[in-house]
């Protein structure tokens, strides 16, 4: 049974607008949450993370929000750029991490 | 973050054979993991590679099929044994460099395995 889910397989956004990627998890013991970006033929690249003691973490254009009661996290990218086009994975866990199925983001110029 | 090198980067193998994938890190790391990404799927955790002891496998993965070694803090191998076409995947080594629970994972570029 999948413990981390990304229900949107794809998302298309206009350049300069906000991209919002969503992720849900089922295990209430998870206390660390991460987002990765992946290009074809490369390994996932770490983007941003958040621990369970916070509800928001910001790094430049990227912000991750955590709603523990809903077991939901989201990644906001503002403003979106064509170079952000990639597959985004969320991950959650304690010491070891489980990944969602990914959302393919396409940022149109 | 650590530089993670995986060998081979890709291979085409015949069913029934075995392939050993190497993962070398340029610095000592606390934890090493092996993941698999089947075509169009998510990253699935195979096992935690424990230094000097047997790996800890996730549900659905067994040592006879995926033996793992980790002789020191910078190196690990994953063997895919008695391969079938269903084993065609990208196999990824990942490491945790920090000791605290809130340290991110970093990944190598993976090994793309095709079994014919």
Structure overview:
The complex is a heterodimer of chains A (109) and B (116). Chain A is mainly β and 109 residues long. Chain A is 0% helix and 58% strand. Chain A contains no helices and eleven strands. In chain A, the strands form two sheets. In chain A, strands 2, 4, 5, 9, 10 and 11 form a six-stranded mixed beta sheet that branches. Chain A has a five-stranded antiparallel beta sheet with strand order 1-3-8-7-6, with no helix packed on it. By secondary structure, chain B is mainly beta. Helix content of chain B is 0%, strand content 50%. Chain B has no helices and eleven strands. In chain B, the strands form two sheets. In chain B, strands 2, 4, 5, 6, 9, 10 and 11 form a seven-stranded mixed beta sheet that branches. In chain B, strands 1-3-8-7 form a four-stranded antiparallel beta sheet, with no helix packed on it. The interface between A and B is medium-sized, with 25 and 24 residues.
């Amino acid at each position: 049974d999948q413990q981390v889910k990304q229900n949107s397989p794809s998302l298309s956004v206009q350049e300069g607008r906000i991209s919002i990627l969503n992720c849900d998890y089922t295990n209430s013991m998870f206390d660390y949450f991460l987002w990765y970006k992946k290009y074809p033929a490369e390994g996932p690249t770490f983007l941003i993370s958040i621990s369970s003691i916070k509800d928001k973490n910001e790094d430049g254009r990227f912000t991750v929000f955590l709603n523990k009661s809903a077991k939901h996290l989201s990644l906001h990218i503002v403003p979106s750029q064509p170079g952000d086009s990639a597959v985004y994975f969320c991950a959650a866990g304690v010491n070891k991490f489980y990944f969602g199925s990914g959302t393919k983001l396409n940022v149109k110029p | 973050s650590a530089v993670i090198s995986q060998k081979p980067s890709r291979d085409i193998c015949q069913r029934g054979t075995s392939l050993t994938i190497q993962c070398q890190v340029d610095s000592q790391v606390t934890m090493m993991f092996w993941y698999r990404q089947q075509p169009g799927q998510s990253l699935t955790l195979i096992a935690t590679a424990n230094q000097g002891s047997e790996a800890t496998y996730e549900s659905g993965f067994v040592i006879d099929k995926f033996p793992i070694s980790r002789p020191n803090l910078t190196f690990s191998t994953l063997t895919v044994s008695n391969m079938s076409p269903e084993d065609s995947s990208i196999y990824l080594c990942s490491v945790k460099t920090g000791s605290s629970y809130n340290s991110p994972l970093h990944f190598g570029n993976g090994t793309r395995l095709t079994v014919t």
